[in-house]
Design brief:
Blueprint (H helix, E strand, L loop, with lengths): L13 H11 L7 H6 L6 E5 L2 E4 L4 E4 L2 H4 L8 H13 L12 H13 L4 E7 L2 H18 L7 E5 L8 H6 L3 H7 L6 E4 L4 H4 L5 H19 L4 E6 L15 H11 L3 E4 L14 H4 L6 E4 L11 E6 H10 L13 H16 L2 H18 L7 E7 L2 E6 L14 H12 L2 E2 L1 E3 L2 E4 L7 H22 L3
Parallel strand pairs: 3-13, 5-6, 5-7, 7-8
Antiparallel strand pairs: 1-2, 2-3, 4-10, 9-10, 11-12, 12-15, 14-15
Helix pairs in contact: 4-14, 5-14, 6-13, 10-11, 15-17, 16-17
The structure holds 3-[O-phosphonopyridoxyl]--amino-benzoic acid.
């Protein structure tokens, strides 16, 4: 058996990598056979700033910050150094049996300070999915301890995304994920999303925001308020297509949660750490959650780590009445991941990245994306902070869609790949979420390449 490292010269060729990838590697959210028939993966070998490089030496502008996570950009030696130093000092120790590490303690203190007032205690896992699974258990535990064990139902939204484990995919409202194996699990319910462009019809935005929120109350009444434990939503739905709720939505949602005494969970896995121009989406939309999961931008994706911030209402009950909380992961509070998170947050602070997104790069991206709005293939451009979406439409006026759904998006995405720009197609919506360090010149490049891809897609679709 040849034990030479994969990157040795002899194996360092796209063809060999692709063949080995096809032979042995199953990719997430991928049609295995389809990928093999297309000839296999694009192999990404390096990255710096907002630029990726593939094994053919092509330079690609990463309009998605990896998977919405590389907030401080690629190539940060400080993060590598923080990981190295922590590994040399203490590569691992657990937080289960009355032990802690300086890194896990310091990060908890820091997150308690950064998160909205009242969220003061932190529980760790390694992914957004694990964080949301943990939350599903916490809210049920909370209501049991409150003497209301029948409160087990959790309400979330169609087209929301909360992860890929059994519970977090059940929380999510993605049909293809449910269809994979018969989810959602019992006790997970979905209501309409605040998607004005797609579902607003003739209503004003303000009116539609309230109607979408009232769907939560209708669901609560249908299930029986005494059976509802919590509502969970992303401040802005990311994977669902950068769905920005009307201003009237979150105030109404909060009113309803308070009225029926149900817990409010704001999933900050994408919105957290500056993406919307504030530290958290909850700051941008003035949401006061009881529970807040975070991941992605917490370490800028350099290492896997997720955190759940919990407010007094929940903590007091778990603390006073709970006894042992029989849940946790080997890597909860992993010291190396925590050290990287601390250094990552230090970079965000020192470089004023949150303020920059709010006052400079965010508005500039929105202004540049808005230039695509007149394109005959574009139905709407929307965005907030460094999140952007371009809806492809067959008819601008009537918001007409191409059929089958997703075809126009796939065509445009394939052109993006050829133009060396990463933009995700969510059905027929092109979305971007670049690293927070993106410069004006790089935003120009990103939007120009996306615009070219839209031009080429328009030709393919016969739109001009
Ligand atoms: N909550 C939200 C809001 C997310 O966006 C998760 C939870 C789950 O996180 P983990 O770390 O378990 O993946 C996510 C993840 C995409 C895409 O293509 C989006 C996510 C993950 C993978 C792909 O849009 N979001």
């Amino acid at each position: 058996m040849n034990s030479a490292p994969l990157k040795d010269q002899a194996r360092n060729s796209t063809t060999v990598w692709r063949a080995a990838d096809t032979a042995h590697h199953l990719h997430p959210f991928t049609d295995f056979r389809g990928l093999a028939e297309e000839g296999g993966s694009r192999i990404i070998t390096k990255a710096e700033g907002v630029w990726l490089e593939d094994s053919e030496g092509e330079k690609i502008i990463d309009g998605m910050a990896g998977l919405w996570c590389v907030n401080v950009g690629y190539g940060r030696e400080r993060l590598a150094k923080a990981a190295y130093d922590q590994m040399v000092e203490l590569p691992y120790y657990n937080t289960f049996f009355k032990t802690a590490t300086p890194a896990s303690i310091e990060l908890s203190e820091k997150l308690a300070a950064l998160t909205p007032a009242g969220l003061d205690k932190i529980f760790y896992a390694s992914s957004g999915s694990e964080a949301n699974d943990t939350i599903a258990r916490i809210v049920r535990r909370f209501w049991r301890l409150q003497g209301q064990p029948e409160r087990t139902n959790i309400i979330s939204r169609v087209n929301g995304y909360h992860g890929s484990t059994m519970a977090s995919a059940s929380l999510g409202g993605m049909k293809p994920m449910h269809q994979l194996d018969g989810l959602p699990l019992p006790g997970f319910h979905h209501v309409r999303q605040p998607y004005y462009y797609g579902e607003g019809g003739k209503m004003s935005e303000e009116e539609f925001g309230k109607v979408a929120a009232l769907a939560i109350e209708e669901k609560i009444l249908e299930l029986g308020p005494e059976t509802v434990a919590a509502f969970i939503g992303e401040p802005v739905q990311g994977a669902g297509g950068v769905i920005i709720p009307p201003a009237s939505y979150w105030p109404e949602v909060q009113k309803i949660c308070r009225q029926y005494d149900i817990l409010l969970i704001a999933d900050e896995v994408i919105c957290g750490f500056g993406r919307t121009g504030q530290w958290f989406g909850s700051d941008t939309f003035d949401i006061k959650p009881d529970i807040m999961p975070m991941a992605k931008g917490l370490t800028s994706g350099y290492l896997p780590l997720s955190a759940i911030a919990l407010g007094e209402r929940v903590v007091d009950v778990l603390w006073e009445k709970g006894g042992e909380f029989a849940h946790g992961f080997t890597y909860s509070g992993h010291p190396v991941a925590c050290a990287v998170a601390l250094e990552n947050i230090a970079i965000i602070e020192e470089e004023n990245l949150v303020q920059k997104v709010r006052e400079d790069s965010g508005p500039y991206l929105q202004q540049r994306l808005a230039t695509l709005a007149d394109h005959p293939l574009v139905g709407e451009v929307r965005g907030i902070g460094l999140l952007g979406a371009v809806e492809l439409a067959s008819d601008k006026q009537t918001r007409g869609r191409f059929s089958p759904e997703g075809r126009a998006g796939t065509i445009c995405r394939d052109h993006c790949v050829k133009q060396n720009v990463v933009s995700r197609a969510v059905r027929d919506t092109m979305v971007v979420s670049p690293p927070l360090i993106i410069t004006h010149a790089e935003i120009d490049e990103l939007v120009s390449r996306l615009g070219k891809a839209i031009d080429l897609a328009a030709k393919d679709l016969g739109v001009n």
